[in-house]
Each structure stands twice: as structure tokens, then as C-alpha cells.
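Progress note, sequence design subtask.
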């Protein structure tokens, strides 16, 4: 993206080299980047493909479409990655050599006050990745029952005071419609203790963002479809940023299901569709964390389809 003649940084991808190396790219292969964003991972994949290679990238955000790459080997799909299989079928792609997912929110979103993803700026409480669909965060806060709000803050934000926060939301909206990030900050103020203020605010905003975008359901659907479209020997490289995502990815790679239930054959051998390439989770080196502080929570897991 360009602003006043200057190239703006849309997003600095975390674990770039590690996640691309994990795909073990075949130069003539077909790959999918399901979280295109600023295109950092996609450009690195294209750099390793020859003229016969192909890359298909997904992103539901209209802003990401502006970063689309002018390359005959590249196809941009403006859609949620939960529709991976349908769009590959439409593009007449039966199977692929690798799928990459960087599940984090782009720096562009956190830094854009108008999108409402960050508590650092005053702006509309939107949080929609695709602004053409779904309820906004403000809609959820104004319409959900106290029980549903409690469940969101507890499950997706892992907040201990989830019920009290939900009750405060309901009490606040009785006198004033919730519309801005500052409205939510006012609600959260009694619960944002000084020594943990930023963490609590981040957890609350994360919970709403996950609900607004249906992120957990979309993730399970995408992973399930990725397994179906991968060739035997194909790789799945996934970067997650919070424990809820990482737990789903870890369980799926280890057992083939999201509950982490080990299924064994008659002889006691674990039946799983994957061979884990990285037995331990991969985290950014200290140097990368210093250069890109937002990479600190990144967790990379890589698996190969049997």
C-alpha cells in the first residue's frame, strides 16, 4: 500500500523463513496461502517456484486485495479460507502440494483506528475482517444476552471475570448505545487492573474479534479441507498466535481430530493422517522478537500428509 508516495508496511510476517522452509517447496508445485494479507509469505513462495508452479492466495479483506501480486502464476481469491475446497474446485485444482496459514491479525488492522481491532485508538467497534458481512463487535455488545456475552469472554478471551464483564456490558447499554472502542474501555476499566491492564484489554478485544469473524469455526473447517486437498506428502504449515488456535492445530496434527482423542488400530498403533515435521512448536528467535515485537506470541507447527 502507498501513502503520499511512501510504501507503507501492511504487515511484517512472523517466522517467514521457518514457515516457508516447512513447506519443502517443489518448484513446479501448487501451493495455497490461505491468509494473504500483505503478501509477505506469498512473495516468498513465488520466489521459490519455477514457471510451472502455481500459487493461490485467499483473503476476505478488501484491503488485502490491493496487495494482489501481478504474476501469471498467482491467483487471488477474495474469500474466507473456510471455502478453500469450493474455490479450488472452481479453479479446477484437485490437489495441492502445500498450504500455509498465518492466523494472526495483520499489523494493518491493528494500526487502522477505523477498523476497531485495537484498544490503542478511538474508533468504531467494528472488528470485521470482511466489512460486507456479519455483525460488528458493537452489534454483538448491544444485542447478545448476558449469558452469550459471558461465554464469549470466558471461552475466547479466557477472562476470569467474564460474567461480571458481561453484566457490565448489559448495564452500560441500558443508558447508552455501545458504538466506540472507548465505550468498551469504559466498561472494562474496573476489571483492567494496572499490573495486567494491557493483557486484560487484549483478551477482551480478542474474544470479540473471534466471535465477530467466527474464527474458530473457520479454522476447523479450513484445516479439515486442507487435509482433503493435500497430496500425500504435501505439507501444512500453520502459524498461530493464541492458545485456542494452537491447541486446535496441535490436536489436529497429532490425532486428526480437534479434541485430541487418540484413535488406535487393532494392533494399538495410533491412526493419524499426518506425520509431524516439527515435533516441538517453533517460536521466533530472540533477534526476530526484538525486530518485530508482534512476533513474540507466534507459534509454528508443520505436518506432512501421509
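Output:
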Amino acid at each position: 500500500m502507498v501513502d503520499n508516495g511512501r510504501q507503507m508496511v501492511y504487515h511484517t510476517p512472523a517466522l517467514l523463513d521457518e514457515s516457508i522452509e516447512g513447506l519443502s517447496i517443489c518448484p513446479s508445485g501448487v501451493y495455497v496461502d490461505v491468509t494473504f494479507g500483505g503478501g509477505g509469505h506469498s512473495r516468498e513462495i513465488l520466489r521459490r517456484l519455477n514457471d510451472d508452479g502455481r500459487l493461490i492466495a485467499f483473503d476476505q479483506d478488501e484491503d488485502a486485495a490491493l496487495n494482489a501480486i501481478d504474476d501469471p502464476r498467482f491467483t487471488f481469491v477474495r474469500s474466507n479460507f473456510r471455502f478453500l475446497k469450493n474455490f479450488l474446485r472452481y479453479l479446477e485444482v484437485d490437489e495441492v502440494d502445500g498450504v500455509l496459514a498465518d492466523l494472526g491479525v495483520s499489523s494493518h488492522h491493528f494500526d487502522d483506528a477505523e477498523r476497531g481491532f485495537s484498544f490503542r485508538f478511538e474508533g468504531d467497534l467494528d472488528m470485521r475482517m470482511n466489512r460486507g458481512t456479519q455483525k460488528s463487535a458493537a452489534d454483538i455488545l448491544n444485542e447478545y444476552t448476558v449469558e452469550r456475552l459471558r461465554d464469549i469472554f470466558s471461552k475466547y478471551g479466557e477472562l476470569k471475570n467474564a460474567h461480571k464483564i458481561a453484566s457490565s456490558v448489559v448495564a452500560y447499554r441500558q443508558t447508552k448505545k455501545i458504538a466506540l472502542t472507548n465505550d468498551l474501555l469504559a466498561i472494562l476499566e474496573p476489571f483492567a487492573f494496572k499490573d495486567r491492564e494491557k493483557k486484560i484489554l487484549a483478551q477482551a478485544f480478542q474474544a470479540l474479534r473471534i466471535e465477530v469473524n467466527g474464527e474458530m469455526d473457520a479454522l476447523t473447517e479450513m484445516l479439515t479441507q486442507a487435509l482433503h486437498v493435500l497430496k500425500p506428502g504435501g505439507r501444512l504449515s500453520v502459524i498461530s498466535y493464541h492458545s485456542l488456535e494452537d491447541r486446535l492445530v496441535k490436536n489436529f496434527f497429532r490425532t486428526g481430530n480437534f479434541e485430541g482423542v487418540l484413535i488406535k488400530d487393532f494392533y494399538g498403533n495410533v491412526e493419524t493422517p499426518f506425520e509431524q515435521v516439527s515435533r516441538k512448536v517453533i517460536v521466533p528467535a530472540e533477534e526476530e522478537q526484538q525486530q518485530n515485537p508482534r512476533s513474540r506470541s507466534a507459534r509454528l507447527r508443520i505436518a506432512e500428509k501421509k
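DSSP finds 13 helices and nine strands in the chain. Work on this subtask will continue into the next period as scheduled.
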